Amino acid sequence: AVRQAVDIMLNTRRYGWQIYDSNIGEELELLVGEEVDYIISAFPQMVEDTLSIDERIIAVENFQYTQNGDSLTWTFDVRTVYGDFSEEVTT
């Protein structure tokens, strides 16, 4: 259930759907058009902010990225009260 919640939060634009509370979702579209250095510095905090509303999530850590052309693929670990798992997001 926590993995599903993380997927929903990271794949739903904040304020984009009325069925979700305004606290649910990401605002990664704010990074579109920004310099790569800014995206690299801002992305981890944006993900942590997005996932922090779920009290089952203890931490989000070990952010790593690979660049392929204009896109960045991020991997990171999500620590929860039920155990840890890895997540991947492409920006």
Describe the structure.
By secondary structure, the chain is α+β, with helices and mostly antiparallel strands. About 25% of the residues lie in helices and about 35% in strands. It contains two helices and three strands; from the N terminus they run H-H-E-E-E. It has helices at about 1-10, 35-50, and strands at about 55-70, 70-80, 85-90. The protein has a three-stranded antiparallel β-sheet, covered by helices on one side. Strand 2 (about 70-80) and strand 3 form a beta hairpin. The protein is globular, with a radius of gyration of 13 Å. It starts with a helix and ends with a strand. The relative contact order is 0.19. The model has no long low-confidence stretch (mean pLDDT about 80).
Topology of this protein?
Layout: H1 2-10, H2 36-51, E1 57-68, E2 71-80, E3 83-90
What's this entry about, in short?
The chain is α+β, with helices and mostly antiparallel strands and 91 residues long.
Features:
91 residues; alpha+beta; 3-stranded antiparallel beta sheet; 2 helices; 3 strands; 27% helix; globular
Shape: globular
Structural class: alpha+beta
- What Rg is obtained from the alpha carbons, in whole angstroms? 13 Å
Helix content: 25-40%
Largest sheet descriptor? 3 strands, antiparallel
Order of helices and strands: HHEEE
Integer average pLDDT: 80
Distance between the termini: 24 Å
Task: Work out the number of β strands.
Answer: 3
Strand content: 25-35%
Low-pLDDT segments, ≥5 res: none
